[in-house]
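Batch manifest, entry 17 of 40.
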Amino acid sequence: MVICPVCSRPMESDRAPIEALSAAPLSRQQRAMLESLIKAYPRSLGRDHLFELLYQLDPNGGPDDIANSVAVRIHNIRKIIERFGWTIPRQRGGTGIKGFYRLAPIEAVKEVAA
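Output type: structure tokens
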């Protein structure tokens, strides 16, 4: 039995609702990235899209290292949303297309790994 991370009541399915992510304690930039991933779910978003989202108002255009800037924020978001039953799957050893990020329920990622 899975407990809802928002209301602490038992859930009927093993999948946490995507709406639970609205309760995740995130910074403004993290929240903007997560909301874009939620809107795109189950599709992926490109690293360039997420970078532009973060730095669209920056007069200097943001840091030079786009990949690292986005990857660090994704890493921090991933740590927070895992408590809510969701993750952003890691891209290792050629699995998936590098430079793209998507949301996925944790149990779906575990099923694929098994």
